[in-house]
Every structure is written in structure tokens, then in C-alpha cells.
Backbone:
């Protein structure tokens, strides 16, 4: 990357660049909006919404959203269910989507 481009790119705070990079991918945009609409979903529920996406691909996208601070993951056991891994937008993720007019 030419030094001029890099110099200007670095004027944007790293955290914002990470969010923009994560949301540059249409699948991640859709996942963020789905979580905004549903509040919280298990991995299994997310996988059902995005069929026929491979679970490893879904996991890859969720990790990118988590690394950017937009989505969080927590674990809990629900009796009578195989669900234990749940995802939701972070406060930062919700605020970011509001500020860009997505919510």
C-alpha cells in the first residue's frame, strides 16, 4: 500500500477500521442485522437462518464480527435443548448500526 494511502487510512481509529472491515462483507452485514432483529440466537438457530451455509463458514463470519467488537458470544445450557452457544450484538454493535442508519 503506498505510504500516502496508509497515512490517510491510519487517521481512522483502528477500532472503527475493524468494524468497517467486518461489515464490508455482505454476509456479515446480514448476520448483524439478523441479530439486531432477533436479539439473541443460538449457533444452531443462526445456522438454520443461513442455510445452506456451511457451519464452519458461519463460524468464520461470527468470529470476524466478534473480533471487531460487534457481536458477543456466551455459553449457557438450556434443559432439553442442544443449544449452548448464543450470539448477540454488543452495545457497541447496536450503537454502530444505529449511527449508520441500519437500525
Residues:
Amino acid at each position: 500500500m503506498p505510504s500516502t494511502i496508509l497515512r490517510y487510512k491510519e487517521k481512522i481509529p483502528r477500532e472503527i477500521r475493524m468494524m468497517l472491515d467486518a461489515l464490508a462483507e455482505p454476509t456479515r452485514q446480514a448476520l448483524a442485522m439478523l441479530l439486531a432483529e432477533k436479539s439473541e440466537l443460538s449457533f444452531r438457530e443462526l445456522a438454520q437462518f443461513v442455510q445452506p451455509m456451511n457451519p464452519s463458514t458461519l463460524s468464520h463470519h461470527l468470529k470476524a464480527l466478534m473480533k471487531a467488537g460487534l457481536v458477543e458470544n456466551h455459553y449457557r445450557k438450556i434443559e432439553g435443548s442442544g443449544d449452548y452457544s448464543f450470539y448477540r450484538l454488543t452495545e457497541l454493535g447496536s450503537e454502530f448500526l444505529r449511527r449508520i442508519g441500519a437500525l
The mean pLDDT is 92.
